[in-house]
Amino acid sequence: MRFGTLVAMNMQHPFDQAVALAPTAEGVYTGATSPAFANMVGPFGGVTTAVALNAVLQHPALLGEPVALTVNFCAALADGTFGATAKPVRTNRSTQHWVVELSQAGEVVMTATAMTAARRETWGVDDEPMPAVPTPHAVPDPNHTPQVEWVRRYQMRFIEGALPADWDGGGVHSQTRLWMRESAPRPLDLCGLAALADVFFPRIWLRRATRVPVGTVSMTVYFHAGSAQLAELGHGWVLGQARAQAFRNGFFDQTAQLWSEGGHLLANSHQVVYYKA
Amino acid sequence: MRFGTLVAMNMQHPFDQAVALAPTAEGVYTGATSPAFANMVGPFGGVTTAVALNAVLQHPALLGEPVALTVNFCAALADGTFGATAKPVRTNRSTQHWVVELSQAGEVVMTATAMTAARRETWGVDDEPMPAVPTPHAVPDPNHTPQVEWVRRYQMRFIEGALPADWDGGGVHSQTRLWMRESAPRPLDLCGLAALADVFFPRIWLRRATRVPVGTVSMTVYFHAGSAQLAELGHGWVLGQARAQAFRNGFFDQTAQLWSEGGHLLANSHQVVYYKA
What angle do CA A228, A229, A235 make, to 5 degrees? Predict the structure, then answer.
């Protein structure tokens, strides 16, 4: 490896390093987990989600931009390399449907589907207004020490529903509102937004003020903003809101919204999470 | 065909006919669209969703019951037969991940993923209480004539956000609440619940009081109830609530909840819908 390449790699943003995929054939890639995004077991799910999206975005046959993305976490990724495939299974005049798979040692670790489409100007309106909240600069950084590495990659300023200070079983609701963005400056893009959709800590920790083992099993992101709109936001803050609707039989759901600081709904997202209780 | 078979087929509930799949190999099936569920173009999407789920439920290797189901409508189904495949791509100790595909004439018309799991007793709570609404018996049937055949298969009693009486462009919100169940008595089951998640008419018709061409492109259902709980409800009414969060660049999202008459959240669901405007 030449010195010039090394410098370029070292200067790359940790998120870009983590979602990088090297194509070995059309729609076939290899990637590797990044220690910078290590979670309790395997990497932060938001980054794996972004990797699945990146496999679509890098495909030479791509039509348009993502509208819907669903990822299924089939198993925890082991630290190290993984394979990824993205296949456009149906291309229409203005929409395209994708099937994506991530694998390690011959075993599927993630399945995903995506729908991309040409964005065009239409009538539009936001029906979920951004809640009235203090500006990011009026909210302090939390003073707890991250327990896992990936949390250091994000600034998170909690307005409501922060991690419980006392794990005393006294939770009463499951709603969190926070300002968030990557810690190291990086312009917001589609992969970055997909990852932000998974930044929220598990709803059950808030609802029960009890730390139980959890793991997301499926997540969907609907993109209401395209890459051009995101680029205008630069390294801007994103307001995230998340809450659960039901905890039942070892699984709870999470419904989430992501707004720009200017109040535009950039994406909404849903996930279902395994819990042990 | 013998007379006995004919009688049996005629006696079958139209929904069961519509979602029936004949296996030709493990995880490989053939089915056919049903005129009873005809929509403007192709069949009612809820039935196609139920077909995808049925391909999983009929698989001999099935583990547990559905927790998450995502379907992607890649193209309108043509009237007639279709092929379906369901593959368990990863089986863990208590969860299983599925990839499903529906095709016609060698072209993919639907992709789907599902996660099934053994339901077990745990701590649980509903965080999205059923809204206070009149009982189904206190709400009249609508007096408009269905424009498409599938609508006749469902009783729908609108509490809020019915189809606009005047298509005058005067819509102000996107929320519908209605009591719903199949018109011909049939005990609620997992496939029936998946179909109910798609009964809501397009949110943009309500929001703009304008009838524009639409088509669901992706839908996700999270199941909070299992088959045993559903069986207890029999041919009961289900309260449906749906609203949009954003209409932008030719796509809007819908977020929906489905409660039993007793107030249990049976499922929540999300979809993203193409619109022409």
Answer: 100
Cα of B43 vs its chain's centroid, Å = 12
Label the pairing between strands B107-117 and B95-104.
Answer: antiparallel
The H-or-E segment that residue A192 falls in is helix A190-196
- Structure-token pair, residue A248: 């039942």
For residues B57 and B23, the answer to whether their CB atoms sit within 8 Å is no
Nearest chain A residue to B99, by CA: A111
Residue pLDDT, tens place only, B210-240 = 999 999 999 999 999 999 999 999 999 999 9
**Chain B residues closer than 8 Å to A41 by CB:** none
Q: Which fold has domain A3-118+136-275?
A: Porin (2.40.160)
**pTM of the full predicted structure?**
0.96
**How many Å is the Cα radius of gyration of chain A?**
18
Question: What one-character DSSP code corresponds to residue A155?
Answer: E
**What separation in angstroms does the CA of B178 have from each of A84, B196, B257?**
43, 11, 11
CATH topology for the B3-118+142-275 domain? Porin (2.40.160)
List CB contacts (< 8 A) between A120 and chain B.
249-250
Residue A66 pLDDT level (bands cut at 50, 70, 90)? very high
Q: Left if phi > 0, otherwise alpha if psi is -120 to 50, otherwise beta: which for B153?
A: alpha
Report the DSSP beta bridge partners of residue B251.
B248, B274
- Interface confidence (ipTM) of the complex: 0.95
Q: Residue holding tokens 């379907």?
A: B71
Is the minimum CB–CB distance between B105 and chain A shorter than 8 Å? no
With a CB cutoff of 8 Å and minimum separation 6, the contacts of B5 are none
Span A217-248, pLDDT tens digits: 999 999 999 999 999 999 999 999 999 999 99
CA angle A243, A246, A249 (to 5 degrees): 135
Q: Which of residues 5-64 of B touch A (CB under 8 A)?
A: none
Domain residue ranges of chain A, discontinuous segments joined by +: 3-118+136-275
* Angstrom distance (rounded) from CA B243 to CA B172: 12
Sort out which chain A residues have CB atoms less than 8 A from B109's CB and list them. Answer: 90
Strand ranges (E), B33-172: 65-73, 81-91, 95-104, 107-117, 125-126, 154-160
Token pair 């932060």 is at which residue?
A: A44
For residues B36, B41, B42 and B47, what is the CA-based torsion angle, rounded to 10 degrees? -70
Q: Do the Cβ atoms of A88 and A97 come closer than 8 Å? A: yes
Which contiguous run of DSSP H or E holds residue B48?
Answer: helix B45-57
Strand pairing partners for A242?
A176, A256
Q: What pLDDT digit, counting tens, does each position of A11-42 carry?
A: 799 999 999 999 999 999 999 999 999 999 89
Tell me which residues of chain B have a pLDDT lower than 50: 1-7
Task: Please name the helix (run of DSSP H) or strand (run of DSSP E) that holds residue A255, with its range, or none.
Answer: strand A251-260
Contact: A111, B97; criterion CB under 8 Å: yes
Rounded-to-integer distance, Cα A156 and Cα A176, Å: 11
pLDDT at A5 over 90: no
Could you give the C-alpha distances from B207 to A70, A79, B176, B210, in angstroms and in order?
Answer: 26, 48, 10, 8
